[in-house]
Amino acid sequence: MIRVFQYFQVRLILLMVLICGLALVAFGLVTWGVILGEKKEQMRLMLTSCALRFTEPLILESNRPDYHTQTQEAARVMTELKNTEVEYAVFNKEGVIVAQSDSWPTDLEIPNDIKSLFDLRKEAGKPETVSIHDPYADSPDSSSEEPRKEDRLPFPRPLRPRDRPPENGSMQNPTDQRRRPPRVPIDMENYSFYDLKGADTTWQTLKISAPGHVLLYAVSKDRMEEEMQAVSKAFVLALPLALAFIGIGAWLVSQQAIRPVNRLAASAENTTVEGLHRRIPESRNAVEFARLTQVYNEMLSRLEHSFAQASRFSSDAAHELNTPITILMGHLDDALQNAVPGSEEQSRYSLLLEEVQRLREIIDKLLLLSRADSGQLKLDKKVFNFSELLMESVEDAREFAPNLEWRININTAISLNGDPNLVRQIVSNLISNSIKYNKPDGYIEVSLTKENHAMVKLQVANSGTEIPEEQAALIFDRFYRIDPSRNRSIKGLGLGLPLAKEFTDLHGGKLELTENSSGRIAFSLLLPV
């Protein structure tokens, strides 16, 4: 799981999803707050509107001596209020409800400042009650009594049906008509909003003060809370979908973003000695990666130049040394033939000839490696009997190690399409290596099998000492020898396994150390059929 987060693309996607998710959550919280504020404002506007429309009629009705008998005006008010979601209650100065709607919540916790409001008004010298006349009752002196100045309407009263002029066009004398009762002095500037709790419901309430009375208008917050819960639920359900779409979009964007890097990585992965001349075209759509592409191409140019010089030097040196070494070997051979048998001179010439032959072998192998590195070593592929070639190599090796136990398990008639000369060198190097690094009375095991009808597997194992782990990783390096003393107790150049590895790679195969334990060392060679 931890390795997943090591991928840049995964971290980029998670970072984008995290940032967008936080932005969505912040947007959702702000939106939720705005919607909640709008809902509360709508509730307050509803309460305020009802207060402006119905406060005065409700006070008038509650002040009637026979308020329990509903008048036409009261019926109209009740009908209009029932068509809204607003409940109301009218309290007298003792805090007793004198009028209320049918659905008024009786379990509502009324704030204590309702009674204290009357006490403050009483201390200030304001009247506790106002004498209000029944607007529809006949008064014997109503035609002669003028309304008080403070009870007059602050604006002209609209005409009512009874105020229509008679058919002759003359208005009746206002003193002959029933006068409108004094207007109730309602303090609309002194109001308060409360969130009051009932048994199961929270109510948004509006308190309005009037002489001798306090009115509470209430609307349930259940509907608002249900709507807000629906908004929250919709947001919670939509958030994972939004994050999923954001993740898909981030993946597509990251794919486009790292495409130049992937193209560069693919080019670097496929770069071989033969392909050092290839260059990556600079992308015009990704200016940020143009510099990286340019640096990579410049590096390839330097590598190509350096490798060409190194290959040229190795090839030229091998060719230049080949001629004098051949001449030297000829002279040493003549001197050896002319020396007195058994003399010190003959022994010296024999040792010199052996060293020159060893030098000649090094030069030949270096020339092969140089040609392989430069891509000039071409395979002369043909179909041949691999089983027969392997048996010949084993028989030749037995003559040099007759004291070892040979365990041969070679399937007959296994054919291979490759260069028989190079394959023979691979086999000879592996068997020669098993002979050199073996116990005096040890064994050599050679097996050849076919795997999956597409590959052949050659395994060469021998008894021997375990190779240290740090040295096992270097056995295919050129001129590396496991013998720590670097003496000549075990003859070798340190080029056998590197050459075998190069020839195996040319055939598209695989050569590796498969067993490295105390008492057994094994190399496996896989080659395509």
Give a short overview.
47% of the residues lie in helices and 16% in strands. It is of the alpha+beta class and 529 residues long.
Instruction: Estimate the helix proportion, in percent.
Output: 40-55%
The end-to-end distance, rounded to whole angstroms, is 40 Å
Total separate domains: 3
Please report the total strand number as a whole number: 12
**What assembly state would you assign to the polypeptide chains in this entry?**
single chain
**Structural class per helix/strand content?**
alpha+beta
Q: Report the β-strand fraction as a percent range.
A: 15-25%
The unreliable regions are 118-181, 484-488
Total count of helical runs of at least 4 residues: 10
Main beta sheet, described? Answer: 5 strands, antiparallel
Shape: rod-shaped
Mean pLDDT: 76
Output the helix-strand order: HHEEHEEEHHHEHEEHEEHHEE
Q: Biggest sheet, strands in spatial order?
A: 2-1-5-4-3
Give Rg in angstroms: 54 Å
What does this structure look like?
The protein has 529 residues and is α+β, with helices and mostly antiparallel strands. It has three domains: 51-162 and 175-227, no CATH class; 287-373, Signal transduction histidine kinase, dimerisation/phosphotransfer (DHp) domain (Helix Hairpins, Orthogonal Bundle); 382-528, Heat Shock Protein 90. It is 47% helix and 16% strand. The chain is built from ten helices and twelve strands. The strands form three sheets. Strands 2-1-5-4-3 form a five-stranded antiparallel β-sheet, sandwiched between helices. It has a five-stranded mixed β-sheet with strand order 7-9-10-12-11. A hairpin with a 2-residue loop joins strand 4 (202-210) and strand 5. The relative contact order is 0.07.
